[in-house]
Specification:
153 residues; 4 helices; three-stranded antiparallel sheet; 46% helix; mainly alpha; 3 strands
Length: 153
Amino acid sequence: MDDHAKRLGQLLGNLQSLEFALRAFLQALPSARPLGIPHGTDIYAFPVGSEVPESEITSYDSLGKLIEKFNAEMSIRGLSGIDPGLVEIRDALAHGRVSSASEHDNLRLLKFDRPVNGRVRVVFNEIMTEAWFAGQKKRVYEALLFVTKNIKP
């Protein structure tokens, strides 16, 4: 169980890093909304309840929307984007159900779609093995590297 928690934390950390890198990339675009706070301001020093201007860094955009915006910019540049399927993993981790048949089995991640006429569809069903975590971490890390490589200095 400790290994599961460690692998889960690493994957979530990579997903959060990817999201921040996407925001930094979008903020560096000429079309970006102004950051609205002085350069060098410690954004982590704002107490709860503080208000700051909306920008690419502070927007409420979901990971899916950020990837969509990034991929649109990459298309303009004639480059391929990053896999929008990464959103599926993030959403399953955030909204899925995790369990196992016994305490010695790997945990399974199961996610259901919104109900339609009293029925729900299974949209994610994976056993969270060491190999599964390694594969997902690799996908997210490669996307993170691609985004950071394309951020303008």
